[in-house]
């Protein structure tokens, strides 16, 4: 019987081989010959190469994963192999654009046991370290997926270097709201709560660090989103509709009382985002959202990336990490 861990280990064992990965999944499906009607597993296995080729529609493998469960049953061995297919990296053509496509259909996969699993991507893709870590985690700890496409889930958890693709082949940028909940739908709800937020002010003198560029005034009364820094900044940093702050708290919902996690402090930035033990996931999310929904200017985006690099270099995972990120942006 295959397990989630065993299936993932097999996937990672061939992670360096950018071609031929479809054969691995084919063998896993073929190994389910004791399930379903005679010959069904073999027929399904024969379909796996086509859905993992570089040019295949990214939704096709999710449809096939659903089909595997529908035809072979919901035994855990079947579910685990279907999960391996959902998480599998599609082949990459090294002579073409390697930005991956990710399925943007909120109805796929339809099998509840397969939802919340996100795919591996080619390690040469920028940001792949975040996505591949998320994929590995999602095998045993799926992300929240209610009303979300896989593309929405991927974007909400820190990876944005991909193209959305629907089952009919239509494509859009990662930040487009085609999938719904993780994109533009957050904009209207968040913008109304940000009204009246005051602008940060310039610290006098010649700045030598990001911390000296701006400082934020006290939060506007009645502002539930803590967006003290939202709006146009006299010093050139305009975070638009959002505050870029990161919070660190112990015992969030679903966590142990002594387990500290990170999350964007701003509700608009955090829309659809789960808390994370890894601060780099959250700093990446914050910086991505400055572009995707916050309408921040380039100076603010550049400052956020610099603060993101600062956190990555610290290597810490506690309250001081969030403080360093926030202080680097003037909060």
Give structural notes:
- The structure is a single chain.
- This protein is 40% helix and 7% strand.
- The protein is mainly alpha-helical.
- The chain has two domains: 4-173, no CATH class; 187-328, no CATH class.
- The strands form three sheets. The protein has a three-stranded mixed beta sheet with strand order 1-2-3, with helices on one face. Strands 4-5 form a two-stranded antiparallel sheet. A two-stranded antiparallel ribbon has the order 6-7.
- Strand 2 and strand 3 form a beta hairpin.
- Helix 10 (279-292) packs antiparallel against helix 11 (298-314) and helix 11 (298-314) packs antiparallel against helix 12 (319-328).
- The longest helix is centred in the C-terminal third of the chain and has 17 residues, at 298-314.
- The radius of gyration is 21 Å and the shape is elongated.
- Residues 9-17, 178-225 and 227-235 have low confidence and may be disordered.
Count of helices?
A: 12
Structural class: mainly alpha
The rough form would be described as: elongated
- N-end to C-end Cα span: 52 Å
Query: Main sheet: which strands, in order across?
Result: 1-2-3
Q: Sheet with the most strands?
A: 3 strands, mixed
Determine Rg (CA atoms, Å).
21 Å
Order of helices and strands: HHHHHEHHEEHEEEEHHHH
Chain-wise SSE layout:
Elements: H1 4-13, H2 21-30, H3 40-52, H4 60-72, H5 76-87, E1 101-103, H6 128-140, H7 150-156, E2 163-165, E3 171-173, H8 185-193, E4 201-202, E5 214-215, E6 246-250, E7 260-264, H9 267-270, H10 279-292, H11 298-314, H12 319-328
Parallel strand pairs: 1-2
Antiparallel strand pairs: 2-3, 4-5, 6-7
Helix pairs in contact: 1-5, 2-3, 3-4, 4-5, 10-11, 11-12
Organism: Cercophora newfieldiana
Keywords: Signal
Signal peptide: 1-17
């Amino acid at each position: 019987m295959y397990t989630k861990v065993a299936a993932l280990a097999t996937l990672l064992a061939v992670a360096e081989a950018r071609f031929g990965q479809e054969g691995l999944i084919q063998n896993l499906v073929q190994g389910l010959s004791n399930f379903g009607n005679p010959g069904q597993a073999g027929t399904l296995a024969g379909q796996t190469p086509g859905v993992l080729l570089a040019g295949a529609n990214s939704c096709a493998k999710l449809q096939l994963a659903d089909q595997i469960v529908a035809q072979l049953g919901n035994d855990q061995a079947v579910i685990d192999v279907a999960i391996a297919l959902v998480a599998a990296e599609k082949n990459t053509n090294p002579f073409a654009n390697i930005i991956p496509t990710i399925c943007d259909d909120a109805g796929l996969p339809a099998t509840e046991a397969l939802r919340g699993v996100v795919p591996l991507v080619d390690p040469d893709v920028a940001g792949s370290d975040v996505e591949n870590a998320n994929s590995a985690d999602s095998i045993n700890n799926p992300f929240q997926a209610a009303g979300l496409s896989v593309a929405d889930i991927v974007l909400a958890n820190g990876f944005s270097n991909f193209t959305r693709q629907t089952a009919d082949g239509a494509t859009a940028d990662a930040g487009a709201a085609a999938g719904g909940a993780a994109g533009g739908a957050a904009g209207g709800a968040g913008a109304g709560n940000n009204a009246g937020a005051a602008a940060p002010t310039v610290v006098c003198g010649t700045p030598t660090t990001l911390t000296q560029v701006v400082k934020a005034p006290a939060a506007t009364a009645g502002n539930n989103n803590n967006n003290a820094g939202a709006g146009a900044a006299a010093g050139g940093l305009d975070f638009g509709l959002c505050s870029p702050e990161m919070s660190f708290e112990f015992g969030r919902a679903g966590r142990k009382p002594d387990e500290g996690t990170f999350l964007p402090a701003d509700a608009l930035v955090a829309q659809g985002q789960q808390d994370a033990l890894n601060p780099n996931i959250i700093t990446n999310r914050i910086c991505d959202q400055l572009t995707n929904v916050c309408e921040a200017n380039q100076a603010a985006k550049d400052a956020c990336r610099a603060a993101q690099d600062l956190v990555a270099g610290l290597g810490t995972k506690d309250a001081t990490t969030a403080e360093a990120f926030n202080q680097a942006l003037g909060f």
